[in-house]
């Protein structure tokens, strides 16, 4: 077999480098977001974290489509994600909510970064996925973007007319705690559905993605934060329902407390359902 042509090898190198370019662009906007937050430009800082999320999604999909994923790319992606979805949202939350409150409230920013680091370390160790192509625990990009888009949401007329009496500092504390616990938990979260034109599932995925894109462009300030809260609540709610059903199917115990063997019908009902 003849050796590959030099032009083919050069093209291959370019394809391999492309995902890393998106990853480094992700890092660029994460650093820029922190710079803007330090200058008091909180609105732009928040949306640059969302841009980081879009770039993070693109670099992963490009790597999978081009089959150029590598250990180097995975490690680089995790290091960048700690900055873009850990440090940058934590700094934004500190300047907006925790810093003005004084005391040791800055520890909530520290806790958010710790949870992102633990989430990514577990993912790299092979414990961040589950059957069906989803995630074990809330993905760090979803958590970071939810924290970031909270500020633009508070600037909308809807929020100011409906929740103006709610203290932002307290909401930010509970939000940070909830997102942090969701990241380090083992609650399963689904991926964004794939896009396709040859199957009903692909068409549904296309419709969902286009809907998110349309609302994101049309009313981004009032759309993205509720979307993040819905995604967070969806995983928690589904895990609670599944856990309740599994406890209901537990094998009965005898008079002496010894667990009895479950019936065949109970075994069939207790088998986990495959999602997607």
Summarize the topology:
Elements: H1 6-38, H2 42-66, H3 71-101, H4 106-127, E1 129-130, E2 134-136, H5 140-154, H6 157-162, H7 168-184, E3 188-189, H8 200-218, H9 220-248, H10 264-270
Antiparallel strand pairs: 1-2, 2-3
Helix pairs in contact: 1-2, 1-3, 2-3, 2-5, 3-4, 3-5, 3-7, 4-7, 5-7, 5-9, 8-9
CATH superfamily: CDP-alcohol phosphotransferase transmembrane (TM) domain
Instruction: Report the principal-axis shape.
Output: globular
Please, how many helices?
A: 10
Tally of separate domains: 1
| Sequence stretches where pLDDT stays below 50 over 5 or more residues | 266-270, 272-276
- Major beta sheet summary: 3 strands, antiparallel
Question: What fold name goes in the CATH topology slot?
Answer: Four Helix Bundle (Hemerythrin (Met), subunit A)
The succession of helices and strands, N to C, reads: HHHHEEHHHEHHH
Query: What structural class should be given to the helix and strand makeup?
Result: mainly alpha
Task: Report the β-strand fraction as a percent range.
Answer: under 5%
What keyword list fits this structure?
276 residues; mainly alpha; Four Helix Bundle (Hemerythrin (Met), subunit A); 3 strands; 74% helix; 3% strand; disordered C terminus
């Amino acid at each position: 077999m003849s050796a590959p042509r030099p032009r083919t090898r050069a093209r291959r190198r370019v394809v391999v480098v492309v995902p890393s370019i998106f990853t480094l662009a992700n890092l660029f906007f994460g650093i820029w977001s922190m710079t803007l937050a330090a200058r008091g430009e909180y609105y732009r800082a928040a949306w640059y974290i969302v841009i980081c999320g879009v770039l993070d999604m693109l670099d992963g999909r490009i790597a999978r489509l081009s089959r150029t994923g590598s250990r180097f790319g995975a490690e680089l992606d995790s290091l960048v994600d700690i900055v873009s979805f850990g440090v940058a949202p934590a700094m934004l939350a500190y300047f907006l909510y925790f810093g003005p409150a004084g005391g040791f409230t800055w520890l909530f920013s520290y806790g958010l970064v710790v949870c992102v680091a633990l989430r990514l370390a577990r993912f790299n160790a092979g414990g961040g996925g589950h059957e069906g192509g989803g995630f074990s625990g809330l993905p760090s990009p979803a958590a970071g973007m939810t924290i970031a888009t909270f500020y633009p949401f508070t600037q909308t007329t809807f929020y100011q007319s409906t929740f103006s009496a709610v203290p932002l500092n307290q909401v930010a504390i509970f939000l940070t705690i909830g997102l942090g616990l969701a990241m380090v938990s083992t609650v399963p979260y689904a991926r964004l559905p794939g896009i396709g034109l040859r199957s009903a599932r692909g068409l549904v995925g296309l419709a969902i993605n286009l809907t998110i894109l349309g609302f994101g462009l049309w009313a981004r300030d009032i759309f993205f934060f509720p979307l993040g809260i819905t995604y967070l609540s969806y995983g928690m709610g589904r895990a609670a329902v599944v856990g309740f059903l599994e406890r209901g199917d537990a094998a009965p115990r005898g008079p002496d407390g010894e667990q009895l063997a479950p019936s065949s019908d109970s075994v069939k009902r207790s088998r986990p359902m495959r999602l997607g």
